[in-house]
Input
Amino acid sequence: MVRRMFHVLASLLVFIILSHAPVVRAQILPGSPTTVWTPIIVDGPADPYGDSQSRRNDVEIIGDGGPHHALYRAFYGGTEGENFLDAEIGFRFRMSGTQGNSSDFGGKAWVGMDVTGDGVLDYFIGLDMSGNRSEITINAAGGDLNISPSTTSIDSNALWTTAATALNYRWEPVTAGPGGNDPSAVTNDLDGNGRVDHFLSFKLPFPELVTVVQTLVPGFDTQSPVGYIAGTATQGNTINADLNGVDGGNNSTRTWQELGAMTEPTAIPEPRHAAVFLAITALLAGCLRGRRATANASAMS
Ligand SMILES: [Ca+2]
Ligand SMILES: [Ca+2]
Ligand SMILES: [Ca+2]
Output
């Protein structure tokens, strides 16, 4: 009985500490290992190799569905002292490698978002390193239907723009294994093209995204469901290179869901909830251990 009480009290203490302690939060580092990023899973296969229309390595998305994921996201909830205005959201693509003699990424990456749950893309977050450009943007979907690759348009007038710098953008060779930026990976050349795969990572201030999306969805926040698609382009406001999760299909008339290109609507993760979940798990585990100890004591007596 005393032992059971000890376990329950210890578990309660863990719960109190965890639920009141500052949650471990850290700003998104574009070069951080994949262990602190969350894979974005689409219904279709992880992205095939060599299906980019442009046949360019740096815009060729590759992934095997795990542990070498094609696409990741990251979220930082911000600090109380800053009224959470320093919150961030980030995305990471795995690409086939560098192109030609260039050591930098020379294309565009887009993350399309359905924020109303109707399968229609509403906004795009873009990274543009094509030509002389070097910027991260939020764009509205254009005037087309935006339900499939063939009906997708991206408004060329960005709603928000910032320069891509070493602080918010990184194009980095994959280093596989413990101590690398992809600790669970077993290879750094997944598609075997002789070019080391590269992570394309970028982030933006989450409040900027909230401000934009709230014009369409009042009250949009970290708990609002978002369906994602992702793809790359060589230039222009299109996804003309590689569509994530689909073998080719850049001009397909099939819908995002039919193609398996769009994720299930998912809330943007809030780390605080993860801490509370862990605390509750610890409490339940403690209770179970206590019950088991009581049962054992009864059996022995
Ligand atoms: Ca691909
Ligand atoms: Ca490669
Ligand atoms: Ca593809």
In short: Residues 31-269 form one domain. Confidence is low (pLDDT under 50) at residues 12-24, 271-290. The longest strand covers residues 225-233. The first helix runs from residue 2 to 20.
